[in-house]
Amino acid sequence: MNIPRYYLSLIDEKNFQNDPIKKLALPDEDELVIAGSMGETTTDPYGDDKHNKGNGILHKYPYSALIVATDYCSMYCRHCFRKAIVGLPNDKTVENFKNAAKYIKEHKEITNVIISGGDPLLISTSRLIAMLEELKDIEHINYVRIGTRTPVVYPMRFFDEELLNYFKEFNKVKTLYIPTHFNHINEITPMATKAILKIREAGVTVNNQAVLLKGVNDSAQDIENLMNGLVKIGVNPYYLYQCMPVSRVRNHFQVPLKDGIDMVDDAKTRLDGYAKRFKFIMGHDIGKIEIIGRIDDKLILKHIHSRPEFPKDASKCMIMKLDDKAGWLDDMQEIKF
Questions:
Q1: Are strands 112-116 and 64-68 parallel, antiparallel or unpaired?
Q2: C-alpha 20, offset from chain centre
Q3: For a disulfide at 155, which of 13, 124, 195, 215, Cβ 3.0-4.6 Å?
């Protein structure tokens, strides 16, 4: 358990049992449930292990390389899909970033790099600058992403002028994006808004990847409020993830797909064009899958990224038999035509 004092202060003590911030931050006895009524669970739902190239590099898609730069976070989110590795010593931590950069230089099919973790913004400014310098002059890299929840849980990190000035200079050479992770409107505070503004003033684009979570944001109104709140502060709604079937997570956080798609569709009827641009997504072992919609008990899915070992799956559509409990691709049978 690790919770910044700032984020802890956002909990509404008058609504303690049902407060979404509390559910995201504080451990619950339901985490002791490894498997339950929602179905099978796993410690590696995204297939990270089979795509680990060493030196912290996960090379899942030909055009993207993800570097696990640290195993540490400012807060350990209770729904984390890397719950099994984050916060513990492990071989996914980059021991030699120069070797990671060398791998990227040698693989010219890579057009973008994601620095992830853990949370890379918990790395010291000087070390983070050194990492980015290794990537800045690689010609075939079009842009770099730094995946972080720091603007949400520890926004004071972005009051470091040295960091922001470097972001501004880096962005002149190589486009920089920050994917962040707001899950609820209550996280969009004046302090978080100020941090986002500072990032944007450095020329960095901020996108948001939320997760649909039972008891946290599992209503059309919650989704509507979150997306409207994001565009108001200049953050682009990008993905809304279906909660992964992670051990000690699935059975108290995952929303059934049937309920989830109905919530998303309901929210989108009231959202304007920019607020409804997000995709409802499953990050599966076989790739990223967009959850398009449903017709009665038929769920319509579309591959938007596929693993290199399954090239024919790119842009493939699937129609799945849906019931009231299915929460993941593996819970359903494909309907063949």
A1: parallel
A2: 18
A3: 195
* Amino acid 40: pLDDT: 63
Distance in Å from the first CA to the final CA of the chain: 49
| Strand pairing class (175-180; 205-212) | parallel
DSSP 11: S
Q: Which of 41-50, 58-67, 91-100, 200-209 has the lowest mean pLDDT?
A: 41-50
What backbone phi and psi angles, to 5 degrees, belong to 331?
A: -85, -5
Q: Which domains does the chain have, with CATH numbers?
A: 5-278 (3.20.20.70)
Q: Which residues pair with 281 in a beta bridge?
A: 241, 290
What one-character-per-residue DSSP string does 12-43 give? -GGGGGG-HHHHHHS--GGGG-SSBTTB--BS
> Phi and psi for 197 in degrees, rounded to 5?
-60, -40
CB 67, CB 114: distance < 8 Å:
yes
Q: Count the Cβ atoms, other than its own, within 10 Å of residue 190.
A: 8
What amino acid occupies position 56? G
Q: Can you list the alpha helix ranges (DSSP code H) found in 187-291?
A: 190-201, 220-232, 250-253, 257-268
Using CA atoms, how far apart are residues 58 and 68, in angstroms rounded to an integer?
A: 8
Cβ neighbours of 292 (radius 10 Å): 15
Q: Which residues contact 88 (CB under 8 A, 6 or more apart)?
A: 71
Provide the 3-class DSSP secondary structure of residue 186. Answer: helix
Q: Which two tokens stand for residue 125?
A: 């400014």
What pTM, to 2 d.p., does this model score?
Answer: 0.92
Percent of the chain clearing pLDDT 90 (strictly above)? 74
- Chain centre to alpha carbon of residue 268: 21
Q: Exposed (0-12), middle (13-18) or buried (19+): which is 10, by Cβ within 10 Å? A: buried
Residue 153: partners with Cβ closer than 8 Å, 6 or more residues away: 3, 4, 6, 7, 74, 75
